[in-house]
Amino acid sequence: MAGINTELVKKLRQAILFQGIRTIPELSRLLSASFPTVKKHLEILIAHGEVEEQISELSNGGRPAKQYQYRAEHAQGLALYLELDAVGFRIFDAVGTSLTSGTEPVGTNQPHVPALIRLITRQLEQNPRIRFLSVGVAASVENGQVFFAPDYPSLQQVDLKGTLESQFGLPVVVENDMNAAVIGFHEGHQRRQQSLIYLYLGKNGPGAGILINGQLVRGSSHFAGEISVVPQYDKKTFGQAIAKRQTALDTQSIDAISRLTTTFAATLNPHLLIFNGNEVAADDLEQIRIKTAEYITEAHIPLLIRSNWEADYLNGLTRIGLHLSTEQPVRGESK
């Protein structure tokens, strides 16, 4: 489409959707673009049904200011996450409001990709306004390709992004589960510019999502957060040290988590260490704090808190999906 600055379109979408910037003067200042240029691109988004114009109330007797907001009904996104025995999903609108969600079982030893494709196919048939997909996996991912999935052998070395985009012709983003969870927590709790680590112990094997000063850490080879392989004892990794725990954390698990907490405190010094509330009780947090204080000065121990991991995970996948949607060409514009 002639005359469109695609980078400006992306930034306009993100400013309106994520930052709540709603007037042309504010958008112009934020994006360092002229008033006419911003107005022109907003008119394009309005014409394509993405943005709507509103008139604010009169202020101090002056001319009412025009404001712009995203149209929730413009499009829908589909977030999906893979568990060992199930695929969970959420359908959300163009501003991130959840419309419906659920889970579907995956049979024992059944490959996950065919099950995922069947679920997506059914959801697209029922919801033709879905225009982008965000997928979470308990594995290391680089550019949509799964390369470290010890608990999901059928996903190993699978180009999941390419497979799904080829199958459905929709933009797809694939993300590690803990990266998505820490993003979801960060956005939901407005922990701007803080350093957060989200620790998961559960059935997918342990993992961590890391934000430093508000920025997601993937690492040089997209392996950051794979804490299961961190060596802790003479012949045990962190994953091995907690593998035999029961519903409640035992003494060895408390010690292993405390050693890992010390490692985080001494290397990344985060503000918060977040645990899945279904895995760790409030009393466990106190025991972890006390044990950690045997390894490092208490002043350096991050605040230990519990959160709803599934909600954070889905909220993160929703946010990632919305970000993907802002990067797409205006409909009718060639890529």
Automatic annotation (TrEMBL):
Pfam families tied to this protein: ROK
Segments passing through the bilayer: none
Keywords recorded for this protein, A-Z: Kinase, Transferase
GO MF, one example: kinase activity
InterPro entries: ATPase_NBD, ROK, WH_DNA-bd_sf
Family per similarity comment: Belongs to the ROK (NagC/XylR) family.
Protein name, entry field: Sugar kinase
Lineage: Bacteria, Bacillati, Bacillota, Bacilli, Bacillales
